[in-house]
Each structure stands twice: as structure tokens, then as C-alpha cells.
């Protein structure tokens, strides 16, 4: 709708310095070394990944570190094809929840290495239940993109 | 606790996209509400507003800016960030405490002035893990939708029918933002956003100011012939980390049961006459209906196919057009309350449902894939 009155165009741009904390720092150090690390809860026995400093369900401290598998099963996924200001990644890309082997919760990441030119192309390679494996980036500075994406096996 | 608390009046801004600045828009809805009841600002005991800061208005501590327009200055007044149904509860509790005879609750968002919805919702995601991976309200909903369709055999057409129904209902609601007749094919063939979602299955961003006046029982009866009583409330929030949650077994059943117990509803699917449900993504209306106990698990698709939730159905859902028609982000919960109030008092106008309404449900959701749910039961 055209506005009848004047419009002020403005932005808010603010720098922050956010602490990773000890547990996430160790998790991301693990990615640099091509390891996906979780922590096991001594009470409910669940392996949580990314590693957590506490189990939200049992509400107790966690310090039993375990390396989980680099392969897993897709629990759900979405082909993202729209754009918005400030979006983290240029579309098209596929985001998914992956149950890594040895973990008891799902891991959020990208699924790639397949033709994303159409939803039909994607669906010929990807469905709920598809097995995938991690593809490591060449540069691994200790970020979530140390894993470039998961590719269907 | 001193008796009941009732809604005396409600006001919504119109049209859905306003030319006013925030200050004037807040003033107009506040003044309209006071005029409807025939009282002055000085007569209002306390004021609670709901608004989001920088993200949804570009101004931080925004209540300090619009405080004079809400009439909140020089009063024992407060503000709630996030879901406006929390502000509604806050207002009810202030009256029930016995300290205030009346409370005005105002929710406000000017979506037309903001960046796209997901520019804002991606900032809800933590910057270490979820945000760089593109998780926002829409992509999280898409992940939930694919699981929902797969697990229960819900079809794309059934999901699209929610948009068809709600935008058609909005044709009869002059306060709604998106008002048009669309077909299932048009919904499914609209531009893909995060598959399986398409543009017409995702809520727009709208302007919306809404205000309700609450009063203690005797005062409510003195101010209006048709008070609508606050009968039940429940809310629950799931954990944050997306992969930890079962996206199809969230906290809504828990929130709903708390509200039903408080309202003494034993068979909500029979006792609720009309429901206003927050469905920023079409399929969520079906899933939330299941989790509210308005139909059986996995039967949300069959529910809409049957016509039960249509304007003239046995249990109309979103006669106002819902969030798919009007999405003033923070205010969308209190819009559901205002619409439920109008349905009970018979003042909804052209989108008044055909059946008589004694009990209405208002629902709001916040966060990714329904992390937070709030349920309010109102009755005459």
C-alpha cells in the first residue's frame, strides 16, 4: 500500500560478543577435529548432541563425553527456496533434522550434494528415512559449517 | 480472589495496514475502547500492554515511547513482551487480586513497518547453532509439516484447505488484512517458501492494535449488559533445541488440559462452540485442533474435509480469518480473545457464526513449531 505520509527509512545495527561457554567451545573444537561430540546423561542414558552441560529432562550436570556417528537417518527436511533480508544462507538449500547413529536426539544441519533445481529432483534422492553422512569442509575454524552438509548415502 | 473477571469491551484497529505512526495508532485503539465503554482514562485501574521491542517496532523499551498513547502514564501499569495472551492473563490476575476494579490490556504490532517476518524470527534462533543453519519460524514449521503429513497421511490438499477456509472467512471481516477467495490449486501453486509450505500457507505481516477492558464481576455488570467471563487458562512451553523435541507431541495438550480443567470443561470438542486458533502456517490449524482435543490424533485432515470447522459448521474455527488473514505478530493472541469475545456477544458482524455461542476458545502460539502455547476459555 502506498503511504500517504512521509516514511522514515532506518536500520539498527548492533555488535555483540556472545560467550560460547565451556561445553559449546569443546563441541566446536571437536568439529575442527572432524568429531561430532555429545554428552550422555547418567540418569536417562540419552546422548545429547550437540553436547550439553546439563540434561534438560533430568536437570542434572553432564560430563560423560561421547563421539557420535557421522552417519544418520533423516527425520524431516525442507527445501528452502525463498529469500529474506539477513538470511544466513543463499537458497536453494535443504535444512533437516538428522538422527545421528549413537545419539538420542536429532541434529539440525543442511543436506546437500544433490540436485536442488526442483522439488522433484530433490525427492528422487531424499525422503524421511534416507541415510546420510557428514561431508567435512576443507577449512574447519570451529563453526557449525565445519560440516559442509550431510549427503545421502 | 474476589469473584470473577469479565471482558467489558474490545476494540481493534482498522484497516489492517494503517497510515498512522505507532503513537497515533495506539492512541486511536485505546480511545475507541474507552469511548465504547463510556469511561475516561482516569477511570481505568491498571494497564498492561504487549509489544515486542526493537524486532517488531524498531524502538527499544517501546512502551516508554507509546506509554502516553496507551494511557498508561502515572498509573500502576506494566508491559509484557512476547505472546499477548500472557498480557491478558496478567491483566486478569491484577483484577482478581482485588487491587484493581478494571484493567485495560493492549497489544500492538505494526508489521507493515518491519523487515520480513523471517528476518525477525531468524533472530529468535541462537547464533551458535540454529541461526546459521537458516532456522526461523517458517523453516521450523516446514520441518514439522513434513513429519505431520508423513506420520498421519495428511494430504497437501487438506493443508491448503485451511487457507481457502480462513481467507474466505476474512472476506466477511472488515478488520482482516488478507481477504480473498482462493482455491486449493492456487494455494498449492503459490510460490514455494520452505517446502512443503507455499506463500499462501504462510501468514502475512500485518499491522494490528487490539485492546480489551477487563473488570471485576460487579463492575463488569455495571459497565455492560453482556460481560464475557474469563473461565480458563493454560500455557506451556517446550524446550528450545529443535532436535530434542518431538515436533508432533508438543506442550499444547498440557496447556489445553489446564484451561479445560479450570473452566470445568469435560468434553471440549462438544462444549466449545467456536475456536480462534493461531495458525501462522495453514497445516498448524489441523495439528493444533488435534492437540486441543477438538478431534482425534491424526484426524485433523478429516476434520477440515468434513466441514465441521467452517463458518456454518458444528465447531467453527477461525471465523475471523485467523492469523493466515491477519498477522500482527505480538498482538495475534489478543486478537483471538477479542474475536472470541465478539462471537459470544453476537457482535462479530458479517462473520458471526450461525450457531449460538456460549463458550469460546482462544489460542496463541509463539516460538519455533509451537514451542509455546497458550489457551484461554471465555464464556457468557
TrEMBL record, chain B:
It comes from the Bacteria. The keyword Acyltransferase applies. Pfam families: Thiolase_C_1. GO terms for molecular function: acyltransferase activity. Transmembrane segments: none annotated. Residues 235-379 form the Thiolase C-terminal domain. Keywords: Acyltransferase, Transferase. InterPro entries: Thiolase-like, Thiolase_C_2. The keyword Ribonucleoprotein does not apply. PANTHER family: ACETYL-COA C-ACETYLTRANSFERASE, NON-SPECIFIC LIPID-TRANSFER PROTEIN-LIKE 2. This is Propanoyl-CoA acyltransferase. It comes from Sulfobacillus acidophilus.
Amino acid at each position: 500500500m502506498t503511504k500517504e505520509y512521509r516514511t522514515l527509512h532506518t536500520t539498527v545495527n548492533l555488535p555483540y560478543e556472545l560467550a560460547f561457554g565451556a561445553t559449546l567451545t569443546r563441541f566446536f573444537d571437536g568439529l575442527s577435529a572432524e568429531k561430532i561430540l555429545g554428552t550422555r546423561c547418567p540418569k536417562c542414558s540419552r546422548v545429547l548432541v550437540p553436547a550439553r552441560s546439563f540434561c534438560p529432562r533430568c536437570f542434572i550436570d553432564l560430563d560423560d563425553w561421547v563421539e557420535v556417528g557421522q552417519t544418520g537417518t533423516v527425520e524431516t527436511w525442507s527445501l528452502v527456496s525463498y529469500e529474506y533480508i539477513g538470511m544466513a544462507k543463499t537458497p536453494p538449500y535443504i535444512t533437516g533434522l538428522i538422527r545421528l547413529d549413537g545419539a538420542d536426539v536429532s541434529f539440525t544441519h543442511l543436506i546437500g550434494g544433490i540436485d536442488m533445481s526442483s522439488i522433484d529432483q530433490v525427492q528422487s534422492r531424499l525422503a524421511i528415512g534416507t541415510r546420510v553422512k557428514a561431508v567435512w569442509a576443507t577449512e574447519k575454524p570451529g563453526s557449525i559449517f565445519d560440516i559442509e552438509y550431510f549427503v545421502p548415502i | 480472589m474476589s469473584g470473577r473477571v469479565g471482558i467489558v469491551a474490545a476494540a481493534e484497529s482498522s484497516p489492517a495496514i494503517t497510515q498512522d505512526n505507532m503513537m497515533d495508532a495506539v492512541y486511536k485503539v485505546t480511545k475507541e475502547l474507552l469511548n465504547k465503554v463510556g469511561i475516561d482514562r482516569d477511570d481505568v485501574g491498571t494497564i498492561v500492554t504487549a509489544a515486542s521491542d526493537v524486532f517488531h517496532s524498531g524502538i527499544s523499551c517501546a512502551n516508554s515511547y507509546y506509554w502516553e498513547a496507551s494511557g498508561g502514564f502515572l498509573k500502576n501499569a506494566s508491559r509484557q513482551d512476547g505472546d499477548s495472551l500472557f498480557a491478558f492473563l496478567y491483566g486478569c490476575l491484577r483484577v482478581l487480586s482485588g487491587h484493581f476494579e478494571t484493567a485495560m490490556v493492549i497489544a500492538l504490532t505494526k508489521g507493515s513497518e518491519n523487515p520480513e517476518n523471517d528476518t525477525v524470527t531468524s533472530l529468535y534462533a541462537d547464533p551458535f547453532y540454529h541461526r546459521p543453519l537458516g532456522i526461523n519460524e517458517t523453516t521450523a514449521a516446514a520441518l514439522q509439516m513434513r513429519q505431520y503429513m508423513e506420520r498421519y497421511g495428511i494430504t497437501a490438499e487438506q493443508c491448503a484447505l485451511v487457507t481457502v477456509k480462513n481467507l474466505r472467512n476474512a472476506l466477511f471481516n472488515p478488520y482482516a488484512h488478507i481477504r480473498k477467495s482462493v482455491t486449493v490449486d492456487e494455494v498449492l501453486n503459490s510460490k514455494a517458501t520452505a517446502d512443503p509450505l507455499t506463500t499462501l500457507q504462510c501468514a502475512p505481516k500485518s499491522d494490528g492494535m487490539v485492546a480489551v477492558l477487563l473488570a471485576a464481576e460487579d463492575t463488569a455488570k455495571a459497565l455492560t449488559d453482556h460481560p464475557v467471563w474469563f473461565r480458563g487458562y493454560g500455557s506451556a512451553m517446550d524446550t528450545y533445541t529443535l532436535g530434542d523435541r518431538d515436533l508432533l507431541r508438543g506442550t499444547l495438550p498440557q496447556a489445553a488440559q489446564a484451561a479445560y480443567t479450570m473452566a470445568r470443561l469435560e468434553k471440549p470438542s462438544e462444549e466449545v462452540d467456536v475456536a480462534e486458533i493461531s495458525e501462522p502456517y495453514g497445516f498448524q490449524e489441523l495439528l493444533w485442533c488435534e492437540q486441543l482435543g477438538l478431534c482425534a490424533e491424526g484426524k485433523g485432515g478429516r476434520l477440515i474435509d468434513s466441514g465441521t470447522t467452517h463458518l456454518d459448521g458444528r465447531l467453527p474455527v477461525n471465523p475471523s480469518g485467523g492469523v493466515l488473514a491477519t498477522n500482527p505478530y505480538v498482538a495475534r493472541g489478543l486478537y483471538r480473545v477479542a474475536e472470541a469475545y465478539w462471537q459470544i456477544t453476537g457482535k462479530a458482524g458479517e462473520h458471526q457464526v450461525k450457531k449460538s455461542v456460549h463458550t469460546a476458545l482462544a489460542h496463541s502460539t509463539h516460538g519455533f513449531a509451537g514451542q509455546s502455547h497458550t489457551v484461554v476459555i471465555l464464556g457468557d
